[in-house]
Amino acid sequence: MAKIIVVTSGKGGVGKTTSSAAIGTGLALKGHKTVIIDFDVGLRNLDLIMGCERRVVYDFVNVINKEATLSQALIKDKRTKDLFLLPASQTRDKDALTTEGVEAVLNELSKDFEYIVCDSPAGIEKGAQMALYFADVAIVTTNPEVSSVRDSDRILGILQSKSRRAEQGLPPIEEHLLVTRYNPDRVSEGEMLSVADVEEILAIPLLGVIPESEAVLKASNQGTPVILDGQAEAGQAYSDAVDRLLGEERPLRFTDVQKKGFFKRLLGG
Amino acid sequence: MSDNDFRLKGSVVTTVVLEVKTPNLEQIKLGLKEKIAQVPQFFNQAPLIIDINQCSEPVSLDLFQTLVAGCRELGLAVIGWRTSEGEIPSWRFDCELPLLPNANSRQINIKSETPAPAKDPHVVIKTVVEEREVSQPTKLITKPVRSGQQVYAPGDLVVVSQVSAGAEVLAEGNIHIYGALRGRALAGVKGDTSARIFCKNMEAELVAIAGNFMLSDALQKIIWKDAAQVLLVDEALEIASL
Lengths: 269, 242
Prior knowledge:
The complex is a heterodimer.
Chain A: E1 3-8, H1 16-29, E2 34-38, H2 46-49, H3 60-64, H4 70-73, E3 75-76, E4 83-86, H5 99-112, E5 115-119, H6 126-133, E6 137-142, H7 146-161, H8 164-167, E7 174-182, H9 184-188, H10 195-202, E8 206-211, H11 214-222, H12 233-245, H13 262-267
Parallel strand pairs in A: 1-5, 1-6, 2-4, 2-5, 6-7, 7-8
Antiparallel strand pairs in A: 3-4
Chain B: E1 15-20, H1 25-38, H2 40-43, E2 47-51, H3 61-73, E3 77-82, E4 106-108, E5 123-129, E6 139-141, E7 150-153, E8 157-159, E9 168-171, E10 175-181, E11 184-187, E12 197-202, E13 206-209, E14 212-215, H4 216-222, E15 228-233, E16 236-241
Parallel strand pairs in B: 1-2, 2-3, 6-8, 7-9, 8-10, 9-11, 10-12, 11-13
Antiparallel strand pairs in B: 1-5, 4-5, 12-15, 13-14, 15-16
């Protein structure tokens, strides 16, 4: 049986798709056969971040409606072995997702894959609820600011009450906190919540802290998951998060203010 | 909302029930008079329910009204009557008194100082304690109450975790929160003014007891991010440290 991971947040624009692409790629790099599903029907983005937008023929909704088979719709990643993508439909809306249809697709994928990463749309409506309904593990993506934290809290409540595991009285979804766009300088100046603040409010274990980085934007525009950029702090932070997800221990990095060197201070860097 | 104009509340009153066993009015009246003479203060304007369930013969409207008049003459305040559900008489709506439901109540016989006169077997007077304090089990929540979630407890509520901002916990009794209270907590929602809220870390958006509430702005000036209890003193909320 595959492990179903939902990447969710409640709020939009916090980095769900970036994180889905990075974590899915990271799992595949570790040798686990992984598929990433874009649940954001109508606002398809994951294919852009993964750099395979020109290879989309059939999509998730086609498979649900049995207009295409899974093997026709799945896109094999060209860079990373063991990585596949199931794109969302751009021309439909979230009503195209039915519980039975999603379940059938997930069951079929479970036979072949070790990990199924569900990239949730923003909000708490049908699309987001479909993405999290069958999950075993949730990665709650949060920016260190109050509105994002509150929306994440709301999503945690939905994970505990409206998921399949909650409805059937199974063991609850494993919850992980992923803090993204973290800027230690702004935290020290009191402009941003600290990791400790976010952890205290949400009270779930921390999976990782991804520093705010230009590399993320660059990677998105180039269609390369940022985790493949081994030089970037954000890429390294995602690698650490994937390792922790697989049960390994990694010290927290990039959460402290970097001391500026003599030349940097002199040149005003 | 017209909270200032009136308030609806549930209330429990101890009443006396007169169980009529025979339609022998004169005897009943005599017996009652004697009973009343033993403890006149107790019976003066005491609320009385007439129970005709055990009467040996069907009671006519005429007889019933005479009985009511007789009771009133003796200084009793008749507030209603009872009978078994299967034998409701046709004059039910003509007697101008409410037909009350039968309560599964405990019975307490009054012990008079002098031995009860045994000569009148027709009248038995019982006080029926209608006050039934049914204790509700305490509701226990062990996981955080998240934003958007609402928890209601018909008795006391114990949360062994936090209550997030945007979450709401309500209880008819007390609320105990062994974590941070960042959302709303409303205790005594059915009007219990003795209910209290206890929390380990007060950061609430709103606290309320029996409809009297206080918002975070006011709370911040009293106790903030510290252990606190909220109680009602003379219809005003008081926030005390724990």
